[in-house]
Design brief:
Number of helices: 2
Number of strands: 37
Shape: globular
Helix content: under 10%
Oligomer: single chain
Structural class: mainly beta
Distance between the termini: 20 Å
């Protein structure tokens, strides 16, 4: 949350080890979303209603500038319920200490709700009747649902007759999120769409639709799992995300959890596991049919050495190294154009799943237009490489742009996951340039295709291409040449992380 000039990040943490367990709410603060100070834990599993874990939840700013936490507690019988906590001292600008409500638990799994599938309350919002609304992730009759509750005082909650939304094509919804986004057009707002995100099957899916705050009726444009082109925040390693409203800069900011893809023994050896993604702004993409995400502007404060390449032809089978930057920590933006573009290869009708299409057509498989893109965290001889690239196909009705992240050669280690991810990008290659931005940070690569309408995050563990031995290349393995219209790349400095325990902060 953003509160009185400070960003607060609360996150799941095990204070006793790097593996899952003893779930506690850790607490860090920042003035710029980039450099952080770790504070004392905000919530610890010490009470009967949360003795087996303080699980996920959200914050809401109540009238009078009072922040409130709603979170899932797991009791002694492993039943999930929702609880409330507020700051102990509102005059403390850091909000270090939090007090759990004497009314906890304030929402319990009754009336047919399975106490094993009842968690992760959202940020609450007020309707025209001044009653608060909140949704809780659940599974009802084996299907995912967002159960809605309303309240006048934020303590006594009443379950609504119907969920805000549900789906018979999904299972349990974890970490639901619900928020408005403005639809822009011709210099003004054309209206508002409401985004409902649900985490299931290790993926973060979302739908958009129209919400009536008077009736709480939510009608989606296209429902979960209703078509081959699924709407997801990210098509890679990205889960259990949450957004918050940055009231100062009038933006919705998204965080995602990036899991490890190596072994638990490696987690134990290094003493930690799991990271947050770079914070991203969320807005409506130019088509109006899906969201666009982009790293927050503040990340550019970390940029140092800069390299630029303009109007450079990259012939088939061409590789060009981007020199002059620290390739293990870098921000790379590149825009491609396809001169003399003509018919691309036909897409196979039985390969409408983009991930399967990427697995079949990895970076080493030549096509007409593509693969072309970036080789990151690559060794000098390209023995190790993570390829983020585009490939152009045509269907009977239109051209199709495929974006892939190929980890098949990312590491010489055989003890790490090397999944290849894929998604389609809604751009017209005959009339538009194709853009790619990749943020590279040692073992994480977050890539944004088509100005952020398609995002893929990967987790890789090279053995050779680390620190100063890492390299970045632009490549084209298609038979037709492509043009690098513009490439800008920067080394990225280390962000600052400090620890603050009880002592005054200045």
């Amino acid at each position: 949350m953003y509160y009185k000039g400070i960003y607060h990040l609360f996150y799941q943490h095990n204070p006793y080890g790097p593996l899952w367990g003893n779930m506690t709410w850790a607490h860090s603060i920042s003035y710029d979303l980039i450099n952080w100070v770790h504070l004392d834990h905000a919530l610890n599993p010490t009470d009967p209603f949360d003795i087996n874990g303080c699980w996920s939840g959200s914050t809401t700013i109540l009238p009078g500038e009072i922040p409130a936490i709603l979170y899932t507690g797991v009791d002694g019988q492993n039943r999930q319920a929702q609880n409330l906590a507020v700051p102990k001292n509102l005059s403390d600008p850091l909000l270090i200490e939090w007090v759990k409500s004497a009314h906890n638990p304030i929402m319990t799994p009754v009336d047919g709700i399975d106490p094993n599938f009842y968690r992760d309350p959202t940020t609450a919002w007020q309707g025209p009747d001044k009653r608060w609304r909140v949704i809780v992730g659940s599974q009802m009759n084996g299907h995912g649902a967002a159960i809605m509750y309303t309240s006048e005082d934020f303590i006594n909650w009443t379950r609504s007759g119907n969920p805000l939304h549900s789906s018979n094509k999904t299972e349990m919804w974890e970490c639901p999120d619900f928020y408005p986004v403005s639809v822009k057009g011709e210099g003004s707002d054309k209206g508002t769409k409401y985004v409902l995100k649900a985490s299931f099957s290790k993926q973060d899916h979302y739908v958009m639709g129209n919400y009536d705050p008077k009736t709480d009726n939510y009608v989606v444009d296209t429902d979960f799992m209703d078509r081959a082109l699924q709407l997801r925040y990210d098509y890679g390693k990205f889960y259990a995300s949450k957004t918050f409203l940055d009231s100062e800069k009038k933006r919705q900011v998204l965080w995602g959890w990036i899991e490890e893809t190596d072994s638990e023994s490696n987690d134990i050896e290094k003493g930690w596991s799991g990271l947050q993604s770079f914070p991203r702004t969320v807005s409506i993409g130019k088509s109006g049919k899906q969201l666009a995400q982009w790293p927050v502007k503040e990340i550019e404060k970390l940029r140092s050495e800069e390299v630029n390449i303009h109007d450079t032809e990259l012939k088939g089978d061409g590789v060009l190294e981007v020199v002059g930057i620290t390739a293990s920590q870098a921000d790379v933006e590149v825009t491609f154009s396809l001169p003399n573009f003509h018919a691309a290869e036909m897409i196979e009708q039985n390969l409408v799943d983009p991930q399967l299409l990427c697995r079949k057509n990895q970076a080493s498989v030549r096509g007409l237009f593509g693969p072309f893109g970036l080789l990151v965290l690559a060794s000098k001889d390209l023995t190790e490489q993570t390829a983020i690239f585009f490939r152009i196909f045509r269907s009977p009705r239109k051209y199709v742009v495929l974006m892939c992240s190929d980890q098949s050669r990312s590491s010489l280690s055989d003890k790490v996951e090397k999944t290849t991810y894929g998604a389609f990008v809604d751009v017209d290659p005959a009339n538009e340039t194709i853009s790619l931005r990749s943020l590279i940070d040692h073992s994480i690569v977050e890539s944004f295709g088509g100005e952020g309408i398609t995002c893929i995050t990967t987790r890789v563990y090279p053995k050779l291409a680390i620190d100063k031995e890492a390299h970045v290349y632009v490549f084209n393995n298609g038979t037709h040449h492509v043009k690098i219209s513009r490439l800008s790349a920067w080394s990225m400095k280390e962000a600052q992380f400090l620890t603050h325990r009880k002592a005054p902060f200045s």
